[in-house]
Amino acid sequence: MNVIVIFDHPYGASASENIPHQRSYSAALLASVMRGLTTKGHTIDLIDLHADGFDPVMSREELAAWRQKKTTDPLVANYQQRLMAADHIVFLFPIWWEAMPALTKGFLDKVFAKGIVYEEIKPGRPFKCLLTNLKGVSLLTVMNTPDFFYRWIFGNPITKILFRGTFRKMGIRKNLRWYNYAGMSDRSLEERVKHLNKTEQRFARLE
């Protein structure tokens, strides 16, 4: 299976080691995901948005092109082609102000373009997904907000945005899985490692 991973953290994918002020639990999770996928023999296509220098801002010219089912950004076109080949998508990022960071939001705004990634058959009706190989989406998030508050007080904003407001709207309703890692900065090293190992095992079982 071809698994595309969209990773968004300023420290980049290499920040997985436990080095103070140079470490990211998101990057450590990414390393675990990739180890698990490799064990299973999946093909991994990593998009590291910060390492790529992705610009999340939709310019006037880009919006005009977007409306014509085109793009003026070669990186966006590259991402779209890679998404077309994906059987499974993994998003991995920290939660900031209860939602995704700017680069992931820009990825959705610019890469998920009408006429390329989805089609609007009729106004007011669900869209048609043009990612014909796609079988599922996994979301991994890291946050300081307690899990209970995020789910029951704030109402799970990230799943409303990414699952209900994006993939379900495109007709992808099955195999949408969210794995949330809350309060990891306050956990012991042993607890953090335990979650990393569990993540590796989980993605070794991905089908």
Structure described in brief:
Residues 1-197 form the Flavodoxin-like fold domain. The protein is of the alpha/beta class and 207 residues long.
Largest sheet: 5 strands, parallel
Class based on secondary structure composition and strand pairing: alpha/beta
Query: Helical region count?
Result: 8
- Roughly how many Å apart are the termini? 8 Å
CATH superfamily: Flavodoxin domain
Q: Tell me the name of the CATH class.
A: Alpha Beta
Estimated radius of gyration: 17 Å
Spatial strand sequence of the major β-sheet: 2-1-3-6-7
Keywords: Oxidoreductase
Organism: Paenibacillus odorifer
Protein name: NAD(P)H dehydrogenase
Domain Flavodoxin-like fold: 1-197
Structure explained in plain terms:
The chain is an alpha/beta fold. The protein has a single domain (2-204), classed as Rossmann fold (3-Layer(aba) Sandwich). The chain is 40% helix and 18% strand. The protein contains eight helices and seven strands; from the N terminus they run E-H-E-H-H-H-E-H-E-E-E-H-H-E-H. It has a five-stranded parallel beta sheet with strand order 2-1-3-6-7, with helices on both faces. A hairpin with an 8-residue loop joins strand 4 and strand 5. The protein is globular and about 50 Å long.
